[in-house]
Amino acid sequence: MRQIKEYCGIFGIFNASDTARLIYYGLHALQHRGQESAGIVTSTFDEVKQRPVMPAHKDFGLVLDVFRDAGIFSSKLLGRSGIGHNRYSTSGSSANPANIQPFVVHYRDGNIALAHNGNLSNARELRQSFSERGTLFQTTSDSELILHLVAQSRRQKQVDQIIDALTQLEGAFSLVMLTDDSLIAVRDPNGFRPLALGRLQGKDGETAYCVASETCAFDLIGAEYVRDIEPGEILVIDQKGCARGGDFKSYQLPQRFGVSQCVFEYVYFSRPDSKVFGEMVDKVRRKLGKQLAHEAPVPKVPEGERRPIVISVPDSSNTAALGFTTECQKLGFDCRYEIGLIRNHYVGRTFISPGQDRREIRVRSKFNTVEGVLKDRIVVVVDDSIVRGTTARFLVNMIREAGAKEVHFRVASPPVVSPCFYGMDFPSFQELLANQHDSNHGIEQMLGVESLAYLSVEGMMEAVRSANDGGHGYCNACFTANYPVPVEMGVTKEENEW
Fold this sequence. Notes:
disordered C terminus; 2 domains; 18 helices; alpha+beta
């Protein structure tokens, strides 16, 4: 699966001596969650103007490119607290520089900055209400609406203004918000997107606290994972809480639809070395692969035939393929895990093939086959998911060209049948491969494989719950069309943004 994009990765830190650099490292660890743009905002005090200010630096490109000038950290992004954002956007908005986060505004109660991971399902309704009141918009992003709600709240205290704004939102929103004296971490009541709290012992002896979409960001800066931000929680990280050893004030948003954490974080998005929703992603993916082995093991081969080999589509399906192989072996199937596809990690989204713009060339630029492994073998390909199917078809062709005798496809998730409105850039209903064929046989023919099997919805949920028995409920709408929060089905993601 290569076609689904996560919307963003967010990171925030409070009470750190080298804030901007730590955010930079955190965003670098979260680069897989957004590669179109990156930005950092810090909070400091301007001695000349004698007031708090929030300097920002953001631009299109990868973290390494946006912050290529090291002088930014020592001369511009000053202060002991800040937030950062990596962005993936829907089409139609990625070219607008105003949409690059974090957003920063100054209003009656000071400065406030925002970085958002997710998608508001009631964005069009909110935007229409603001437009009727004469509100002017600077971006086409639903994230801006949150700041307008805060600024126009009639509550007196800033934290109450923020709570007032958040109670009017529907959909997916994991947020880091920066005020002049605090870092605020927010997770929507459903808990769609992950958000974790970490603790870092600073070089100056002070204890800093950080918040990130995934715990792999903590690992890079040497921070300790403390806990997840709970679904519906508003955690206010400030100096008083730091002085109390991390005893921060916490508020709870009302829950209307229960908890529904995105199961696709486990299937594909998150890094396997991250702890998401309270459990290591690697552990869950192995469980998915093992469950797949019970439902659709490697094919039985005639006596005297060489045993099948199992290969993954690197990198997101590596762990599931390992779990699948070991469980098949436990079940008595003679097979072996091999590395049959090599991924080129240095091909970015801007790769241009000279003289042609065919998807096949783009696939070949990212993957290559190991002919000595595949030639004359029965090959079982394990992938995390199939969306449009175009990448899978090209990969199957490449494996056959390398001399494979048979190609069988196993998918460690169910068929994707519905678009997502909670923070993932899925194709439309009509573009999804599973909706273009009446049966697996039609998909087998399109892919050009001897057999195809998906993990069942029941099997996927059993694997996730068995790996994370302390977890809450999960959203699997992309596999079932059962949306836990009402959405406007006729509205495109582009219309929802503007």
